[in-house]
Write a structure and sequence with these properties.
- The structure is a single chain.
- By secondary structure, the chain is mainly alpha-helical.
- A hairpin with an 8-residue loop joins strand 1 and strand 2.
- Helix 1 crosses helix 2.
- The chain is flat and about 55 Å long.
Length: about 150
């Protein structure tokens, strides 16, 4: 039997193959229509997962300093890595409650995030160096440019 995650992937891949552009809501609608029993069975788990994501997004937005700075220009919330089996590997705390080790750990996470983002940007820029001379001003797609490379 197919699980919902596999059904989502299958539906996503089919949509990408069949349509020129794909929106996330359209794929979700297709999954619900094609797999109503799987969808119904997963509602409780998905509801919990959505709540987890919402809280995680909230925690990240507060730790990303969206204008919510506290003393010394730090974000209002600091993420600190922890080893746990149930969570996402982090706990969050108001910056005003943080001790030095937590402030330092929060900085370490930011450095790690910057390094990860730089690797992704370097890879993207490497592709642009190859694609620009083939694509710029032509209207070619990436697939068409790949055939020329």
């Amino acid at each position: 039997m197919v699980d919902l995650r596999a059904a989502v992937r299958e539906t996503w891949e089919k949509a990408l193959d069949d349509d020129r552009t794909v929106s996330v809501p359209s794929v979700v609608d297709r999954v619900i229509e094609a797999y109503p029993d799987l969808y119904a069975a997963e509602m409780e788990n998905l509801g919990r997962a959505a709540l987890l994501r919402w809280v995680k997004d909230l925690a990240r937005s507060e730790s990303d300093s969206d204008g919510q700075l506290t003393l010394f220009g730090l974000p209002s919330v600091i993420a600190v890595p922890v080893e746990d089996e149930d969570g996402d590997g982090y706990v969050y705390l108001r910056t005003t409650k943080a001790v030095w080790e937590e402030v330092a750990a929060g900085r370490g996470l930011r450095v790690e995030n910057v390094r990860h983002a730089q690797v992704k940007l370097d890879s993207y820029d490497g592709a642009i160096v190859i694609l620009r001379p083939l694509m710029e001003g032509t209207g070619l797609t990436v697939a068409e440019a790949a055939m020329l490379a």
